[in-house]
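Entry 14. Ran structure prediction on the chain below.
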Amino acid sequence: MHIQFDSSVLQPDSRRRGPALDIMAAALKAVDPWGAVQKSLQVDGDRLCLPNQTYDLKALDRILVLGAGKAGGPMAQAVEACLQDRISTGLVVVKDDHEVPTDIIEICAASHPVPDARGVSAGRRILELAQSATRRDLVIALLSGGGSALLVAPAAGISLRDMQDMTHRLLAAGATINEINCLRKHCSGIKGGQLARAAYPAACVTLALSDVIGSPLDIIASGPTVPDHSSWSEAWEIVMRFDLAETLPSAIHKRLKAGLAGTVPDTPKPSDPLFDHAYAVVVADNRTAALAARDHAAELGFGARLITTYLQGEAREVAQVAVGLAQEVQAHANPVTPPACLILGGETTVTLGSHPGQGGRNQELALAAALALQEIPGVVVAALATDGTDGPTDGTGAIVDSTTVARGLELGLNPQQHLKDHNAYPYLAQVQDLLRTGPTFTNVNDLLFVFVWG
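Output, structure tokens:
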């Protein structure tokens, strides 16, 4: 994987921003999906070897490769490189502009983050392939961030429009990915272990690139091949938490109520015998990227610390925490002496309200940090979406410092108003603090970097 940032962001202070870009590139390289799969999936003669699991290839009639997610393309390429013509067929659905060439496994594209008809078609075809599997077949599932929106097979009575409307409302309300996926699983025929149910009694191997805090397998891509720990009551609690009971599509409301009443079966749970033939492993996650960034920062002479990979909260409030960490380093050399690189991983949220401007959570975080940094020189804050797309924009995130606000004011921009309107993208683009990489073909949540000089 070769990551190239737009060099325009170096202009304000290349001496400090240059190393920051190098460290971010090292983080992304560490979660290259192709390399991650290659480390976990190897062929030794007639044996297919994974961590703590081995399959006899001579005992298999077919190998089917199915999957969904932003990293699906290079993951499929890696499986082909490993298994070659042992693969019988396959289908992996990816986000638009994330298609890559493959020999056997078909790659198709669909919409993200709001599902479309292509995702429905792909989901139904993947279900059909899984249902064709027999006891002597092996199903390899490749799952990564974005898979929840890309792998769509609405439950009976629910339309694509219903799913789109529900997703829009949850996103606008500031729901976390875990909360959104809980609702998705209970309105789907493929999520929450139901793809594994379709493939049973075939053996099922899941290789997951995690975009979820803590990497719970039942949340990654809405867990289509693993036991589901969520319930109808949890799904309904989320609806009530965001006051959506009166605004959700009637078909979804009806299904949730039927589930609560016990007239619709829940998703398969850990005790279900269908999972006796299932195996899953996380091949890379946010911590993988964060540790690589920490190690590269140390090589460049920074006092580097990984603070957390469980970062959550409203983006603009997290920005205040980031600036507070920088001030602690400057004032007390805690937790390290400058030059320092503090790394935080996770996923923040943005509650849009009545001002849905243009941007993403990382851009909003960065603009809020810039406002707090006006009188604090010697600090650079960078917020990065590891998939290369922050919100519905071409921005990957942003990098800011104490000059970001002043440069905007010189251009006649009002940073406070842009933040209030959740409209960080045009501001950051005009002051040339917007990070751009294009699609990275990976996705392991977000990374937040706080660089501090004395």
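The radius of gyration is 22 Å. Will compare against last week's run tomorrow.
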